[in-house]
Amino acid sequence: MKKPLKPVQLSADEIALVRSLVIYEDPHILALAKPAGLSSQGGRGQVNTLDELLWAFAKPGKARPRLIHRLDRDTSGVILTAKTQPAASFLGKAMMARKFSKTYQAIITPSAPEPPVGRIDVPLRREEQGREAYMRVCAPDHPDAEAALSRYRTLKSAPGCALVELSPETGRMHQLRVHLAHIGRPIAGDVRYGGALAVSGQPIPRLMLHAIALEFPHPEGGRKRLEAPLPADMAGLVEKLGLI
After folding, report:
1. Among residues of the chain, what percentage have pLDDT more than 70?
2. Is the pTM above the cut of 0.90?
3. Phi-psi bin for 237: left (phi > 0), alpha (psi -120 to 50), beta?
4. Predicted pLDDT at 5
5. d(CA 174, CA 162)
6. pLDDT at 219
7. Residues spanned by CATH 3.30.2350.10 within the chain?
8. Structural domain 104-203, CATH architecture
């Protein structure tokens, strides 16, 4: 039998923060708009992760909601949790069966992809460098190769950049970031994979990747679509770069 997790003590500010992130809740699920800079799980240092902040929603003596998937620390957007064990099991199986549909938006440089709509079907492999993990493109017959497929669509282009919509059909770590870098269109602010730190004179403070929508089977039946609008910093950059 699994030992129950010990609740994390949260400050009033942390509780207020995580409660302010809620975009949808029902008896089965809780969805939040994760800000950039907050680790989903397994963060290092003194700052609590989103997984730990979920203790703010735990009823006395009960478990906290469980994360169904993760977002990179510097990626913002919709993240889904299950409030009950049956919901967690149902959603976990749906995720494994690829019944989730994820939609992202990203600012890329130096221009729109060619063609403007397409797919990137390139295997990836994990590579460790010290305490850091990277993903690299590799040949299909590489012993560590993992199949990876991403779809993209150009929404708007401007001098030196473009706004694209992205749909990963597989869920590899850093998949969208590596695939876009592979085609010579890295995501702005992506230091790890060659993204620009300034575009048209505008500084890029972070990775410009946002999980804007998530569609999935609901434990009670049917499909549910949840959306999180672009955060203020990314929306402001989109406007300044003429990508509206």
Report:
1. 97
2. yes
3. alpha
4. 72
5. 20
6. 97
7. 12-99+214-228, 104-203
8. 2-Layer Sandwich (3.30)
Do 74 and 209 touch, CB atoms closer than 8 A? Answer: yes
Tokens of 51: 């997984």
Residue 110 falls in which region: left (phi positive, over 0), alpha (psi -120 to 50) or beta: alpha
**80 class by beta-carbon count within 10 Å (0-12 exposed, 13-18 middle, 19+ buried):** buried
Q: Please write the tens of the pLDDT for every residue from 109-157.
A: 999 999 999 999 999 999 998 888 999 999 999 999 999 999 999 999 9
Q: What is the distance of C-alpha 20 from the center of its chain?
A: 19
Structure tokens at 35: 């800000």
Query: What's the sign of the alpha-carbon dihedral 81, 84, 90, 93?
Result: positive
Question: pLDDT digit string (tens) for 216-229?
Answer: 999 999 999 999 99
- 67 alpha-carbon distance from chain centroid: 13
Nearest-5° angle of CA 113, CA 119, CA 120?
Answer: 85
From the candidates 13, 26, 72, 121, which is the catalytic residue? 72
More confident residue, 46 or 105: 105
Question: CB neighbours of 56 closer than 8 A, spacing ≥ 6?
Answer: 10, 14, 15, 18, 19
Q: What number does CATH give the domain 12-99+214-228?
A: 3.30.2350.10
Residue 121 annotated among the catalytic residues of the structure: no
